[in-house]
Amino acid sequence: MLETSLKKYFNFSQFRSGQKEIVESIMAGRDVVALMPTGGGKSLCFQLPAILSDQISIVISPLIALMQDQVDGLVARGISATYINSALSFDEISQRLSDIKAGKIKIVYIAPERFGNHQFQKMFASLEVFLLAVDEAHCVSQWGHDFRPDYLNVRQYIALLPKRPIVAAFTATATPEVKDDIIERLALQRPAVFVRGFDRPNLKFFVRANLKKKERAQEALRIAKSIKGSGIIYAITRKETEELAKFFKVNGVNASAYHAGMAGDKRGKIQNDFMENKFKVIVATVAFGMGVDKADIRFVIHVGMPASPEGYYQEAGRAGRDGEQAFCILLHSKSDASLHNFFIMTSKGDMQAQGKNWEDCKKVIDVKYAKLNKMKEYVGLQTCRRLLLLEYFGDPAVKNHSGNCNGCDVCMNYKWDRATQSEVDGEKKTSKKRVKRASGEIFGTVLETAELYKQGYAPQAIAKMRSLGVSTIFNHLVEWYDAGGEFRIEDFLSHKEEAQILKAIEKAGSMEKLSPIKKYLPAEISYEQIRMAIAKKKRG
Prior knowledge:
Blueprint: H1 2-10, H2 19-27, E1 32-35, H3 42-52, E2 56-60, H4 64-76, E3 81-84, H5 90-101, E4 107-110, H6 118-124, E5 129-134, H7 153-158, E6 166-171, H8 176-185, E7 192-195, E8 203-208, H9 213-226, E9 231-235, H10 238-250, E10 255-258, H11 264-275, E11 281-284, E12 299-303, H12 309-316, E13 326-331, H13 335-353, H14 358-380, H15 385-392, H16 444-454, H17 459-466, H18 470-482, H19 495-508, H20 515-518, H21 527-539
Parallel strand pairs: 1-6, 1-7, 2-4, 2-5, 3-4, 5-6, 8-13, 9-11, 9-12, 10-11, 12-13
Helix pairs in contact: 2-3, 4-17, 13-14, 16-18, 17-18, 18-21, 19-21
């Protein structure tokens, strides 16, 4: 029974909407196209069948960071998985290829560019592959918002295999036209097509239009300060990410810029620090869009209108992947469209320089303008914003939509001039899944962490499995302890450290704020340990 395997390998008691049907189709040997929202559980749909098979499965993924996060999560669950990409040394790649040949690996993640490597081609042609899963499959389509030419090679390399595997394509951002293009370009054979749950009710959508540049920065700052938790701010240009990050830091919000112009090791450190909540806000270009896999992002603010609904929904969808309430806010300026027009015309020149004919260029340009016009429509809407997105992606749930989602600024009749009374205020809105300390019960994201801890997983492993920072997992466990849970604080806090913290509390004169306590302690004692000592003292 699939639910038994789901519980065994992923600790979930039931599938999310649409997942089981996709898994069943793959297990029955059918090719699949699955269109599901970011945060909708796509990865489980190919990971579970891969785990249940006796043969190796290959996952094609476009970003190194995503590969590493997913492999770390699988390994933490005791599943033999690995990845091969350009970040590895020659010796590391050779060792991983040897492990694959020896049958030690169940799932291998690769970038599409890897198919061009002769050594990999040779090994690939000798494998009996159960499943070839193509993640972010919209990258294969020239009508998609993130076309990657290397994805076009996937089809020809499938032909190298001694036996054709099941081929499953997954994306969060495909329109019906892109879906058809994926089927053709990957040569899928009578695929089962699933369009599932683009609606994510925990996300709240807001737009503020026609702001001047300075007003927009100030509004982004105000919103970020008003919402508890970490968030992403997207800007259109690299220069603007740097300017905004500096503006935030000057005004008391710990922030860091992130863009493709930075060295890879620097980007990696910023991303790891963000995962561990070492700063509140990351200000990024779309290069960060598919790269972040942090489940507890509470807000995504676009300082600038994206070029397409696909790009917007994928980036906004980074918020609230833990199922808790989160905010997706677009701050628009009249100059946004002009900047995108410039980018489109530049891309036209690039295509012509590559030798594409006028007709092909016009098709691509027309599609880009159609997407940009749809974003302009989204910004100017006087009706439900969520409904426009669901219609755009062809979500079948549209036929049952009332026209009022109660989760966007239009449907909520939100007025931006109520600055300090904003609904965009994470302190004032409580989630249905919030911890209930009074009754000794816990729910939602804290409960998921507690359940894994009770099964014997270490906090570091839980963090990998749940796509959260280790500091966040410790905070969950302390909340659980506060509610009566059996978190063994002594495993992470020695008697000496506890005594030091208690003495620091006396010097600080209060337990309400951690920073005054921290200044009396050595650097190696963490805020998480301070929280543990306080929780233990309160519990007596």
